[in-house]
Amino acid sequence: MNAPTPAATPATPATPAAKKPAGRAGRNLELPEHLKAYKGVWVFLEHERGQVHTVSWELLGEARKLADTLGSAVSVVVLGGPAEPLEQFAAQAFTYGADKAYVVHDAVLQGYRNEPFTKGLTDLVNKYQPEILLLGATSMGRDLAGSVATTLLTGLTADCTELNIDPVSRALAATRPTFGGSLLCTIMTLAYRPQMATVRPRVMAMPQAQAGRGGEIMQETLGMVESAIVTKLLDFIADASSNKINLPYADVIVSGGKGLKNPENFKLVFELARVLGGEVGATRPCVQAGWVEAERQVGQTGKTVRPKLYIAAGISGAIQHRVGMESADVIVAINTDPNAPIFDFAHYGIVGNALQVLPALTQAFAEHLSRGGRHAA
Amino acid sequence: MHIVVCIKQVPDSAQIRVHPVTNTIMRQGVPAIVNPYDLFSLEEALRLKDRFGGKVTMLCMGPPQAEDALRKCIGYGADDAVLVTDRAFAGADTLATSYALAAGVRQIAREQAVDIVFTGKQTIDGDTAQVGPGIAKRMGLQLLTYVSRIVETDLEQRTITVERRAEGGVQVLKTALPCLITMLENTNELRFATLPAMIHAAGYPVRKWNKEQAGIEDLGKIGLKGSPTVVSKVFGPTPRSEKAEMLALETSSLRDVSLNLLQKIFTRHPTLEADLLMKEAP
């Protein structure tokens, strides 16, 4: 083992710096000539076991808007096994706004693995040179995006909540929460291409499918053999459907916070969610305290949700939580503190004890729905 | 077995406040902690060491005070710690960070070959999850992200089998060492640091490497210069213009307030009621 070295001596390099050009730390912020040929907006189409992940359609909605602003086209990249219905996925992508699909069928692309997928996507980018490349911030998308960006040595902005074209530079202006959602920052990749970004499921709105809209399918090849791939996919164990918690795509979510006082009281939240046919969410402190499963966490480090109805019980509305749920159509807040920040962005508020209000709401909804709603009788 | 665990010192985001006028982060009094996600990787590394013997070396890039975070890890049972620290690293984005950390791992591997590199799944301040994959790519290591369980490690065959969290299920992957692993949160429970270990950690001489000692070859690839992304604007979230319509409990009964709320919700969202009734139907 080496002896401990003395503290780093900053500011005085051993050799004089070779070049010290003007600008911020000699940074090149101009797009080099050879990268100006990069055109078009791409979406990596994510699918698993015959299903396209909805985040891919949400990304296509954004890609269409960006491409229209730039006056360019939208393409999707679809990688998969020999028998997978990739052309069918491509046809679906056309209805959501894609103009072109690059399709690669190869046995080594059956089931996601980092190495062949990184090669597949990187090769296509180098060949067709898109300006922008978008991926879903899922476990597959994040794994792939980080590897592709490092291979291409370009900029990647994670978990964006807003994508725009900067009117001055015509670069992708990607806005994302930072410091746990306390602040937002807009990030651009000015001198490198493609400009890469990931977006979490449910952050962007689902676009309207246009039936009959078509596009061009380009069949591509991978050029990789199984024996050259080190990592082997031995098995895929699907989650049991009984314990699947699909928070991001739930229509109704009833969430609880530390205002519920103890984990036993969460049953009131579950009861209301059951009557509404919805899911149960929670704040980070509740998850950290082990009151409910981690999959139920709503917020910056949890899930982003976009339900039609979100009922927040005993939740103060810290920014960390807010960024994950503020796109809900109707937000109802129940809190004992009239100054809780949640009342600043909820649509309806009740200042009161959630332990009393929740059962009353459960009863009211149950009676109302069992009668067949307002228009019955 | 030689394992390198990369960590980051981060401000405890639960305690961060933003100045309401200037929209700057108020760091005063906010404690710096080891990125919580990194600790799941540290524990997994320590478990492998418990089983197979060998050594766990910690690696961190950051300002000089980040040595506190490394000391903490020595207290949990890591054997050695290296802090890569130099002003030239300032302003690094994830691409530049992965270059510097990969250089650090290579330098550590020159002293003793490395079998596994661990990083956290992501940090709580940047939340990007990009540095782990970046290091793996730069070093040509097999990448295993979001690992929920190490199923089997075979040092004879130099293979490792893991379960990896994917959308809708778990992938079982087998790969060759050396590899890079990022552990999923809540997959293990960090051990306690014993008092003698904490005393040992408090006096532990964390090695500090400047850019030359870290083996940085291309200064254009570190710090701000090596960062393709440019932060063009930082701003606070826009407040919603309308405040919540409050339903008072003082003036009417809990039941009336509930029924009133129901009507308001269904009026505001005309299709919701029909959706809920459909769910009710068998």
Describe the structure.
The complex is a heterodimer of chains A (377) and B (282). By secondary structure, chain A is an alpha/beta fold. Chain A has 8 helices and 18 strands. Chain A has 2 domains: 200 residues, 3-Layer(aba) Sandwich (Rossmann fold); 126 residues, Rossmann fold (3-Layer(aba) Sandwich), CATH 3.40.50. In chain A, 25% of the residues lie in helices and 23% in strands. In chain A, the strands form 4 sheets. Chain A has a 7-stranded parallel β-sheet, sandwiched between helices. A 5-stranded parallel β-sheet of chain A has the order 15-14-16-17-18. In chain A, helix 5 packs parallel to helix 8. Chain B contains 7 helices and 15 strands. Chain B starts with a strand and ends with a helix. Chain B is α/β, with parallel strands linked by helices. Chain B folds into 2 domains: 220 residues, 3-Layer(aba) Sandwich (Rossmann fold), CATH 3.40.50.620; 43 residues, no CATH class. The longest helix of chain B has 18 residues. In chain B, strands 11-10-9-12-8-1-6-7-13 form a 9-stranded mixed β-sheet, with helices on both faces. Chain B has a two-stranded antiparallel ribbon with strand order 2-5. Classes of the chains: A alpha/beta (377), B alpha/beta (282). Chains A and B meet through helix 3, helix 4, strand 7, strand 9 and strand 10 of A and strand 3, helix 3, helix 4, strand 9 and strand 10 of B. Strand 18 of chain A pairs parallel with strand 15 of chain B, so a sheet runs across the interface.
SSE layout and pairing:
The complex is a heterodimer of chains A (377) and B (282).
Chain A: E1 41-44, E2 47-48, E3 51-52, H1 54-70, E4 74-80, H2 86-95, E5 100-105, H3 114-128, E6 132-136, H4 139-152, E7 156-157, E8 162-165, E9 172-178, E10 183-189, E11 195-199, E12 216-220, E13 232-238, E14 252-256, H5 266-275, E15 279-282, H6 284-288, E16 309-313, H7 319-325, E17 330-335, E18 348-351, H8 354-370
Parallel strand pairs in A: 1-4, 1-6, 4-5, 5-12, 6-11, 7-11, 14-15, 14-16, 16-17, 17-18
Antiparallel strand pairs in A: 2-3, 8-9, 9-10
Helix pairs in contact in A: 3-4, 5-8
Chain B: E1 2-7, E2 9-11, E3 17-18, E4 25-26, E5 32-34, H1 36-52, E6 55-61, H2 67-76, E7 80-84, H3 94-111, E8 116-120, H4 131-139, E9 142-154, E10 159-166, E11 169-176, E12 179-183, H5 195-202, E13 207-209, E14 229-235, E15 245-246, H6 254-268, H7 272-280
Parallel strand pairs in B: 1-6, 1-8, 6-7, 7-13, 8-12, 9-12
Antiparallel strand pairs in B: 2-5, 3-4, 9-10, 10-11
